[in-house]
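<instruction>
Derive structure tokens from the sequence
<data>
Labelled lines for chain and fold:
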Amino acid sequence: MRVLNLVPTRESRFFQQQVAHLRERGVEQTTLTVPGRKEYDDGDTSTRSPLDYARLYPRVLEESFGDYDLIHANYGLTAPHAVLQPNLPVVVSLWGTDLMGKYGWVSKLCSRFADETVVMSPVMADVLGGDCRVIPHGVDLEKFQPAPQSDAREELGWRDDAYHVLFPYPPERGVKDYPRAERVADAARDRLDGELALHAVTGVPHDEMPTYMNAADALLLTSRREGSPNAVKEALACDLPVVATDVGDVATRLDGVTHSRACSTDAELVDALADALAADERSNGREVVREVSIERTNERLYDVYREVVRDS
């Protein structure tokens, strides 16, 4: 099988994992990316212009005459390029903000013309309001696994006599709501004996993130919206307790996970974080998150490819 991938940037971790796994299944892939750099002018909005996206279309059209079985638009803003080419069946994958952000109408419109649309969570399926497959991005259980906390802290230079809370996003990303995380951490600090350090970790090589997950006492996610946040699944794979806003599929992922909770209000977030830290125990997240291992989720995506090619 040969697939033409469209993606805003090939550096997306879960996209790289997807490509690698499908390559092992014998899927040959060519990837086209949007010209320009993916930066953010206000914490949420890419500074790529409509012209940058428009410049991608001639390349897509030219490649669509090549020897491919299907075209896969990864992220909603690459979907118009896929559905406007006349030659290949189309799979569209929506990641979260592309459906629930200000350009969500583009994703909804294009999904009507795709052969299959993939979303990350049941919440996204409800927002889309049409036929789709729910297949979250998977987590690499070999890379993300429990390790001794003392060793991880020594490697990072973190104190052993303090609580460490991990915020795994850039503070300037408005949709991640770092100010709310600071408020919650400050309030939880007042209820604990001992110091609490909130670590906003960004720009770290992905291979180093398991060390941060194992060094921390809890992961705090305060996003205003998400699809299926990989940081939550990676934390669970390391048995790190998770306290998060009830966005995307977070509630589903945390169902049955000890010392972890999906919350709606600041008060609930504070209570959950203080309780998780006071318990001073790891979670049982790894046994729960196995169902969304990268192997299982990408096998499901491969099945979508086969069905689309069969029916085209």
Q: What stands out?
A: The chain has a mean pLDDT of 92. The chain has 14 helices and eleven strands. The longest strand covers residues 2-7. The first helix runs from residue 13 to 24.
